[in-house]
Amino acid sequence: MTTGTKRRESALANRKTIGASLLAGVGALAVALGAPLAAQALSGVVSEGDLDVIEVEAAESSPGVWDVELVGHDHGTDTEFDPADVTYEVTAVDGVGYIAEGEALSAGFSAGDEDFLADLQGGDVTFTLASASRSGSTTGSGNVEIYDGKSIDIAFNADSYGTSGSEDFVLSGHTHPDWEFHGQGTYTLVFTVSATPNPGITVNGLPDNVTVTVEVI
């Protein structure tokens, strides 16, 4: 091998080494600058977004045994959150606060996945409004309506409902109803979620309660 050939091969090897180092450095910088941060779970005051206030999260820990947790679900970031950590804030228009698809805030309910529902009698989950109240600086009647034209159609007065538990709905899927709050104030709605398993099926974690807090300003 001639001296010139050795020099050319040595220079080529050096260029390859430098190029690889540059690419590695650029890649590291891209990761450092461009890697998305992990989505943070919702907490505090939430006034906009597309989410479920209650989602039935069921995992089959062994055949015929389901472990259930009630969570909130932020569709925008596809992350779960603790419903107790969130207060939903709505600005009243002509004395009425609206939560609905097409509004700043859309809030739904989810009964769980098909495999879980198939192990329940009726294939559905029951959401009972165990209690309702209104506090703070209030205006208007305190009437509340939650409806989707299919599964949900409940109406009550938050000032007088108390712990009657007289309103409920049965759900076998996922829905985003319209919510109407007639008057300002902080509405505290406690839902009890329950289900009846088929024979031979065990459901751990139900019934359980979730508190949904809505502040209408």
How does this model look, in words?
- This protein is α+β, with helices and mostly antiparallel strands.
- The chain folds into two domains: 1-35; 45-216, no CATH class.
- The protein has helices at 3-34, 114-118, and strands at residues 44-46, 49-62, 65-74, 79-81, 86-90, 96-99, 105-110, 125-135, 143-147, 153-157, 167-171, 174-175, 178-182, 185-194, 202-204, 208-216.
- A six-stranded mixed beta sheet has the order 1-5-16-14-8-11, with no helix packed on it.
- The model is unreliable at 2-33 (pLDDT under 50).
In short:
This protein has helices at 3-34, 114-118; strands spanning 44-46, 49-62, 65-74, 79-81, 86-90, 96-99, 105-110, 125-135, 143-147, 153-157, 167-171, 174-175, 178-182, 185-194, 202-204, 208-216. The chain has 217 residues and is an alpha+beta fold.
Total domain count:
2
In DSSP terms (H or I, runs of 4 or more residues), the helix count works out at 2
Distance between the termini: 86 Å
Give the low-confidence spans.
Answer: 2-33
Strand content range = over 45%
For the biggest β-sheet, the strand order reads 1-5-16-14-8-11
Number of strands: 16
Approximate shape = globular
Largest sheet: 6 strands, mixed
Gyration radius, to the nearest Å? 27 Å
Level of helix content? 10-25%
User: Helix-strand pattern, N to C?
Assistant: HEEEEEEEHEEEEEEEEE
Structural class: alpha+beta
The overall average pLDDT, rounded, is 88
